Amino acid sequence: MTSTVTRHRPSPKAGRYGFLQVLHAEWTKFRTALGWVIGMMVAALMVVLFAVLAGVSSNQKGSSPVPIGPGGGPVTDSFYFVHQPLAGNGSISVSVSALKSSIPKGPGDLRPGIVPWAKAGLIIKQSTRQGSPYAAIMATGSHGVRMQDNYVNDTAGLPDPVSTASVRWLRLDRSGDTITGHASADGTHWTKVGTTRVSGLGPTAQVGLFVASPAAVGGGGTAGSVSTATFGDLRIQGGLAGSTWTGGQVGAESPSFAGYPESTSGSFTESNGRFTVTGAGDMAPAVRDSLPTGAHLREILTGTFAALIAVIVVGALFITAEYRNKMIHLTLAASPRRSRVLVAKAIVLWAVTFVAGSVGAICATPLGERLARRNGVYIFPVSSLTELRVALGTAALLATASVLALSVGAIFRHSAGAVTTVIVAIVLPYILIAIPFIPAGVSKGLATVTPVAAFAVQQTLVPYDHVASNYTPYYGYYPLAPWAGFAVLAGYALVSLAVATVLLNRRDA
Q1: Residue ranges making up the domain that contains 492
Q2: Residue at 150 is within a domain
Q3: Is residue 371 in a domain?
Q4: Residues 305 and 211 in one domain
Q5: Residue that is last in its domain, among 287, 321, 336
Q6: Model confidence over 440-492: pLDDT tens digits?
């Protein structure tokens, strides 16, 4: 008689249960190791503690209030305004034959320069109150003719800067709340630039000439500039409620106004129908480096840096401690499929770190914001959904960094080497982008290709094409979108985990 021996094959269900056993074993190891649990608690507390310190350390009490635009966001609303009240509908036109800017190169050293977004033109504005609605058409330093309204909207018109050989004629027409802007190269043939609806102008609005000169950007910093424009051929149709032109600086005390360079000031003169107007400031959304009394969520969550070090150490020790104590032999004997062990460790570590990070960030954000506001700091507004995205993104950043440390620990089998490597890969680039005067290209490069790109999950500020500024990670502007920045760190972690898995299967324990 011939007997047949049937080899037993574990069912898929049994295989899955085997992995669950490994997962439970790794969770048991983690929760029974007091040092690792304390490490995660410290990470969460660091996020909260630094948020408290950020809230109480910046005292802006007594500062001028930040202007708020029609859309509810902070704005810069400072410029020199030569105006009269216009009752009801009407039209105003003017020619701009010169726009020259000066930039300080040192104390008392004012030199001619180019301020790309220097502005000279016509404006219809509800009032001289900062943040009030408006529409304007203007010639700019380097961006041709533009029509802008309510600080955030910008429409391009005729190209090329103005000069005596390239005069630009500008016109604004009001019909109720509708403002239409036109531009011309000869004062006869007009091209429509744009039409916008400006709610809240009221029956009588302020209309006239303006000059604005934003701070010049360079070398990682800014310097207040001043610009002078020459106007002619001023014509008005409609009911002027005044009889004389009044000139003055709007927003002279605004915290977002960089001020005039030394020995300069705003002014206007009129002679034979020609106006010469000198002004400084800008009409635009406020950005971080133009608002010294402001802060954003990333600055509240500076404790992420300290928490990052804590989770890196715990992540590395979660695997290297077993090599040091020779426990790795028992672990691998209990689970012959070695890759399961590393995957189970990664899942447990990621989940625990994510929970700790979420608790820390969710508690830290409202607490830090409340304390900062009490001290007069203006917090750039975000929606509740964005705030939650930042908190959970911060937790995911910490969790993924801990898995990266785990993977490197499995590769090196030594905690000191693993911790040092991951800190150099993440913390060192973070320190470098935190230096305000590091070249923008270097800063953006580090925030694009290194794991520190994941800090983009904390980004809440929006760059504007019509506002020149230092859009660098130092000020909270990352080159990658939040999800893309996180994907960079996740890529490093997954590749490291794959390498660690291959080495774990090939090497002796």
Answers
A1: 19-60+293-506
A2: yes
A3: yes
A4: no
A5: 287
A6: 999 999 999 999 999 999 999 999 999 999 999 999 999 999 999 999 999 99
pLDDT per residue over 147-191, tens digit each? 999 999 999 999 988 988 899 999 999 999 999 999 999 999 999
Contacts of 451 by beta carbon, 8 Å cutoff, 6+ apart: 401, 404, 425, 426, 429, 488, 489, 492
Q: In a 10 Å sphere around its CB, with 0-12 CB exposed, 13-18 middle and 19+ buried, how is residue 87 labelled?
A: middle
Does 162 fall in a domain? yes
Give the integer Cα–Cα distance in Å for 153 and 285. 10
- Which residue, among 411, 404, 393, has the nearest Cα to 426 in the 3D structure? 404
**Residue among 427, 464, 459 nearest 446 (CA):** 427
Apex CA 506: angle with CA 502 and CA 509, to 5°?
110
For the segment 226-252, what is each residue's pLDDT rounded down to a tens digit? 999 999 999 998 877 667 899 999 999
347-to-24, 70, 407 alpha-carbon distances in Å: 11, 47, 12
- In sequence order, what DSSP letters do the residues of 47-116 get, joined into one string? HHHHHHHHHHH---TTPPPPPB-TTSSBEEE-EEEEEEEEEEEEEEEEEEEEEEEEEEEETTEEEEE--T
**pLDDT tops 70 at residue 375:** yes
Separation CA 204–CA 202 (nearest Å): 5
180 and 120 belong to one structural domain: yes
Q: What is the pTM of this model?
A: 0.89
